[in-house]
Design a protein that fits this description.
heterodimer, A: alpha/beta, Rossmann fold, Arc Repressor Mutant, subunit A, 2 domains, four-stranded antiparallel sheet, 16 helices, 16 strands, B: mainly alpha, MetI-like fold, two-stranded antiparallel ribbon, two-stranded antiparallel sheet, 21 helices, about 75% helix
């Protein structure tokens, strides 16, 4: 039997940093991609999907396990793969044509040939006439077309897409997706497989043959879904919504019991949960919306109703779950009685309800306990930051404190003085006056 | 980081007030100084300078000589900056050493080394060559640091996706440098080149007119021409020389820097259009010119292709983008460098202590008094500069009509190196009672005010219009408006300007406080005068002590005062967040 495996990600782990300050981005991931396959990687932000993609292209190397391409371990940049970037990564000082031709120059293609090949590719993506334009003169959608033309110019076997449509407006994204699918299914591309990172579930179902859902802390594979809807696909196709619902269920997970949901305090044994980066306003907005509808609301509908992207929504849902205002089960979200009470409450009562719950979060509690232990109940921000560095990388530690301060200020539990960069206990102690 | 930030912010590195790295670097400097002093004892006690003719037809020749020195030093600086900045940005272990070294080097008042460098070089090289090299080295040290910081910053702030795309598309080092790194750094490099040239003229003029007692180190050039003209009281030659200098600086601005800046607009990273792009009539003319077009097509393009062919090997393996963390502790090269550095440091330490121990108490008192006097002059110069630049800067920055008239005047005035005006100043002031003191302060002022003014103009024009309107609406006027809106908004820019200005003022004290004019030496009490006269008298212990004191004063002011104010400015008064 011929082995059709192009890419074999074999028990791959990636750790950033060293020793005390290390952070596991992905852990023990195994995934195979066959020739002819289009695989989408989905997951909330921070689940390591981009890290995985960068290991496949060889931009970074795994700390454990191996990435095998055609059976050979990837060493340095994988010569058979290429990547399309979320932010396009076009060089603004080069014209559209030069951006594409440069990728060929680097492969040693002669001047005449690279110009003619680049022009042909720009024709293919529908950009003839724009050869001498600079990227800044183009719309987002057209810039990403240049990104695709550049990627296709080097005739990659494996095309890696890093959220290629998420920086585009809705209409351009839709058009570009359609055009890519047309090229891919018509067999005009030399490409044999596509691996796309996305945080848009609909997009993944519309395009991929297989959807792999990842979870975080640390990044791991939660579930895989084969998409066997007939092509070309549309959102109104039978089976589409059912699949959407199932994938949503896998991503949002299921609300656990309270101890697991809130995790443990920094420094204490057990998993310290990362506070979701969402604001009180966003959560209140979602709760208000949910309170107007029946119980057990489909998550994917919520995404459409609120008009925010999945990444942000997952964070907001997580916040509501953590605080005990909502529960999630099998792709449905429902308010708890407490959540209902929050929605009905006045501004001041909301603050109190919120404070009562926030106070129980180990992270907030840990900060408050530390503040209580010092004489004037005031500590520099740096103290907390340094303590958190033992469990989280730099940027996450900073974000954690930002979120905790934001919630704590709203709940009137904590005060933060930006001038001296100090945290202190709010004298009102969470009783809104 | 915004482009403005990459260009104008003097990088102040975080860290302790005085680290081990600082001590090591100061000791190395002391060792170098000591070596120079050692050599300097062999210098002949009388050196005759070149005869400077004041005929008008010699002016182009002198101008060409001065320009040549500038160009040589600039090319050296650019090469150094790219190599140094590149190594520091690419390797973590190199960065740990290279950046603190640069940090101290840029705060060292370079002119305090001029006397020693001159003497040391004349002792080992033929006179003319030694003086030429000393001048070029001096200009280099005034140009290189900000260029290096700029290039390093660019390499550090190169967007990750550019680097990733370069790796994924298998760019070789040359392709990456030519198409990604250099273009990204170019705007910062060009802006800093403009500043470096301005600084360079200042030092070149100082080096060209330098005399120490009976040793005349003048170099044939515009600086020497100006000094000779002033000493002989030849007003028409004086004006002619200044005219040629200003004309040369304006020509460079119009024919080189402005076209380059306009051309470099394309390297701006922002994806949106710019309302106010830099323009240049000369560049536009070049673009229309048939000759220039033919030259590009027939000569430059093939040349570049030739270079490309030489430098573009098809890359076999492109490494991952992991930060390079080599274990530098145990490879032989670093051991060798470490041993060498340790040797220099120990030798420098011992000889420095030995030399300093010879110094009588009286000399230390002189140094303390001198340091106080120079500090006072620096404070006065900076205060005067602040007093006039804030109102004028705000006027230019907020009032387009005033800007239209004043901006070009200010630019031309700022382009004249203060040291070139020094002979003129002396001519007018030395006859007055406190003339020498006044001349010293004015020279410091001339050297420091422009950078402050340009920063304030930039700050005033960056005050958000909404805030201005709001202040109008709530009726903020007069002093209250200054206190609540204008001054806080200007604060970060004033601090940035002050850092450079005060450093420059210290530097200028070395040429300002001790002068030889028309065969007569005049000096005032001050650290700069001590440094220069100690060199002239061959009192090397005093020279070493006073130089080290000056270096420490500048470095400590930076660390204790400016760094704190800068941090405050960054965290509380930034408008462009």
């Amino acid at each position: 039997m011929i082995d059709n495996t192009l890419l074999n990600i074999d028990h791959v782990t990636r750790v950033f940093g060293k020793g005390d300050r290390s952070f596991t981005a992905v852990k023990n991931i195994t995934l195979k991609i066959q020739r002819g396959e289009f695989v989408a990687l989905l997951g909330p932000s921070g689940c390591g999907k981009s890290t995985l993609l960068r290991m496949v292209t060889g931009l970074i190397s795994p700390s454990g396990g191996s990435v095998l391409y055609r059976g050979q371990p990837v060493n340095g940049i994988n010569p058979y793969s290429t990547m399309v970037f979320q932010s396009f990564a076009l060089y603004p000082w080069l014209t559209v044509l030069d951006n594409v031709a440069l990728a060929l120059e680097a492969r040693g293609v002669g001047l005449e040939e690279r110009l003619s090949r680049a022009e042909k590719l720009l024709d293919l993506v529908g950009l003839d006439g724009f050869e001498s334009a600079y990227p800044r003169e183009l719309s987002g959608g057209m810039r990403q077309k240049v990104g695709f033309a550049r990627a296709l110019a080097v005739q990659p076997e494996l095309l890696c897409l890093d959220e290629p449509f998420s920086a585009l407006d809705v209409l351009s994204a839709e058009t570009l997706r359609g055009e890519l699918m047309e090229l891919w299914s018509s067999g005009q591309l030399p490409t044999q497989a596509i691996l796309m990172v996305s945080h848009n579930i609909e997009e993944a179902i519309l395009m991929a043959d297989r959807v792999v859902v990842m979870g975080k802390e640390p990044g791991h594979i939660v579930a895989e879904f084969a998409v066997d809807l007939i092509k070309p696909r549309s959102r109104t196709q039978p089976g589409f919504e059912a699949l959407l619902d199932r994938i949503y269920g896998a991503i949002a997970g299921k609300t656990e019991n309270e101890t697991t949901e809130v995790g443990t305090a920094p420094g204490a044994p057990g998993q310290t949960r990362i506070l979701p980066s969402s604001s009180v306003e966003a959560m209140a907005g979602m709760i208000d919306h949910l309170s107007e509808t029946a119980k057990g609301y489909d998550l994917y509908k919520l995404e459409n109703d609120l008009g925010i992207d999945m990444g942000d929504m997952v964070q907001t849902i997580e916040m509501a779950e953590m605080l005990g205002f909502a529960t999630v089960n099998q792709g449905d979200i429902a308010l708890t009685p407490l959540g209902q009470a929050f929605s009905d409450a006045s501004i001041l009562t909301r603050k109190e309800l919120f404070a009562n719950r926030a106070r129980r979060l180990p992270m907030v509690k840990w900060i408050m306990d530390m503040l209580r232990a010092v004489p004037d109940q005031i500590l520099p921000w740096k103290v907390f930051y340094t303590a958190l560095l033992r469990e989280f990388p730099d940027d996450i530690a900073t974000r954690q404190l930002d979120v905790a301060i934001d919630w704590g200020r709203y709940a009137e539990l904590l005060d933060y003085d930006d001038r001296d960069e100090t945290l202190s206990l709010d004298p009102s102690g969470g009783r809104a006056s | 980081m915004t482009l403005r930030a990459r260009i104008f912010r003097t990088p102040l590195r975080e860290g302790t007030v005085f680290s081990r790295a600082d001590a090591v670097i100061l000791l190395i400097l002391a060792a170098l100084l000591y070596l120079g002093v050692h050599l300097a004892t062999d210098t002949p006690s009388i050196i005759t300078g070149p005869i400077i003719r004041l005929d008008a037809d010699t002016l182009p020749y002198y101008a060409l000589l001065s320009f040549g020195r500038m160009l040589a030093a600039y090319i050296l600086s650019l090469a150094f900056s790219i190599a140094y900045g590149y190594s520091a940005a690419r390797s973590k272990s190199a960065e740990r050493w290279l950046m603190p070294v640069l940090d101290v080097l840029q705060s060292v008042p370079i002119l305090s080394f001029l006397p020693v460098v001159l003497l040391a070089l004349t002792a080992i090289l033929p006179q003319r060559a030694a003086i030429e090299i000393a001048a070029i080295v001096l200009i280099f040290t005034s140009q290189a640091w900000n260029l290096t910081f700029s290039f390093y910053q660019s390499m550090r702030t190169l967007p990750t996706e550019y680097r990733e795309a370069a790796a994924v598309y298998r760019f070789s080092r040359w392709v990456r440098f030519k198409n990604v790194e250099l273009p990204f750094a170019s705007l910062g490099l060009i802006w800093n080149s403009v500043m470096s040239w301005a600084g360079g003229w200042f030092f070149l003029m100082a080096a060209e007119i330098f005399t120490l007692g009976d040793r005349d180190f003048r170099l044939p050039g515009l600086g020497a021409y100006l000094q000779t003209a002033a000493a002989e009281g030849n007003t028409s030659a004086l004006l002619g020389g200044l005219g040629v200098l200003v004309a040369m600086i304006i020509a460079l601005d119009q024919l080189v820097w402005r076209p380059l800046l306009a051309w470099a607009e394309r390297f701006k990273v922002s994806q949106v259009g710019n309302d106010d792009p830099a323009e240049s009539w000369f560049l536009n003319a070049l673009k229309r010119s048939w000759v220039a077009g033919a030259f590009t097509d027939k000569v430059i393009a093939p040349l570049l292709r030739q270079i490309d062919r030489r430098l573009t090997p098809s890359a076999a393996l492109i490494p991952s983008l992991e930060p390079v963390e080599t274990n530098t502790l145990w490879n032989w090269r670093s051991i060798l460098i470490g041993l060498l550095a340790a040797g220099i440091i120990i030798w420098g330490g011992i000889s420095t202590v030995g030399l300093l121990a010879q110094l009588p108490l009286q000399a230390w008192l002189d140094i303390a008094v001198g340091a106080g006097a120079t500090l006072l002059r620096v404070v006065i110069a900076v205060a005067i500069a602040l007093a006039w630049t804030i109102p004028v800067g705000v006027l230019i920055g907020t009032n387009p009509r005033a800007a239209k008239i004043l901006q070009p005047v200010v630019q031309i005035a700022a382009s004249i190196p203060a040291t070139a005006l020094f002979p003129v100043l002396l001519l007018g002031l030395l006859a007055l009672p406190a003339g020498a003191n006044m001349a010293a302060v004015i020279l410091m002022l001339l050297g420091t005010q422009w950078y402050l003014l340009f920063n304030i103009i930039a700050g005033a024009s960056a005050i958000p219009r909404d805030l201005g309107f709001t202040s109008d609406l709530i009726g903020l006027r007069g002093w209250r408006r200054w206190r609540t809106l204008t001054l806080p908004a200007l604060f970060p820019y004033i601090v940035t300007g002050l850092i450079t200005s005060s450093g420059g003022a210290w530097n200028a004290s070395i040429v300002a406080e001790y002068t030889n004019f028309g065969g007569q030496t005049s000096r005032v009490i001050g650290l700069g005068a001590l440094i220069t006269s100690a060199t002239a008298d061959g009192n090397y212990a005093l020279l070493l002590a006073s130089t080290l004191v000056m270096v420490s004063m500048v470095v400590l002011t930076n660390r204790l005062l400016w760094r704190r104010l800068y941090r405050l400015a960054e965290s509380r008064y930034r408008m462009d967040q």
